[in-house]
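#dry-run=false #mode=assembly
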Amino acid sequence: MKFMIIMKADKNTEAGVMPSEQVLTEMGKFNEELVNAGIMLAGEGLHPSSKGARVKFSGGKPTVTDGPFAETKELIAGFWLWEVKSKEEALEWVKRIPNPDGTDFEVEIRQVFAAEDFGPEFTPEAREQEERLRAQIASKQ
Amino acid sequence: MRFMMLMIPKGYETAEPDAMPDAKAVAAMMKYNESLQQAGVLLALDGLRPPSMGARVSFPGGKPKVTDGPFAEAKEVLGGYWMIDVKSREEAIEWASRCPASENEVIEVRQVQELSDFPPDVQEAAAGLLELQGRSGQPKGA
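#status=ok
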C-alpha cells in the first residue's frame, strides 16, 4: 500500500526559515533508514506558499490568486511517499520522525488510490490508459 | 523547475471512507493527464483516499499523538496532486488553469525545493540522501 505522509506547514516553513544543522542531520539519517527499509518512494519539500498560487474555477473559468495563503491552517510544507504493508506500519514510521528541536508539528497520513481500489467503473480501457501513462512517466525518469 | 499542483476538492474533508471519484470526471482528467504527459512535463501524479481513512499525528511535548480521520477541524484537504517539470511559475499556473476542474475544486501551485535552492552547507548535508535515492546531485530541471 502506498501512503502519502504530509508534513504540515508552520510559521517557520512559511517564513522560509532553514532547518538547523541538527535537524538536517537527523532527518538525513531517518531518510536513510526509510531507503534502507525499502519503503521510500519519494520525499520533497515545498517552497513557502508566498511563492505559490491558487487557481479557482468558476463557470469553467480559472481565476488565479497569488500566495501566501495565510487564511488556511491546512498548508503543506513537504511530503513523503512510502510503500508499506499497512496504515499501522506507516504510523510506526511517522512516530519516529526526528524532532530534535522539540517543536510542535503535525503530519497527515493518507492512502494513495491504486487501480485495484476501483470497481467496474474503472473500465479495462481506462485501466490500460492509466497503465500506459504511468509506464511513460517511469521511462522518462 | 518542479512544481506541485495540489488538488483541493471542497467537501472531500467529510467524504466517506469508500468514496470514489466520478467516472466521467476521471475520464476528463485522464485526457488532461495525457496532455501533460505528451507535453513532456508530467513527473508523477496520485489520488488520495478520503481523510476518513487516514490519520494525523501531532507531537505535543515531543510525544506522538494519533488522531484518526476524518478531521473535524479541517476546512480543506488534499485530494491528489501532479508533479510537473516546467520552465517557469507562469507555465505551471497555465497548466493548472487548463485542468478540467469543477467549481468546488481549487488547485494550489507550489514550487518544489531543489538542492540548488539551499546554502552550500545544507547541500552538503543532503547530498548523501540523493545518492541513496539513485539521483544525480542536481535534480532534473533544476
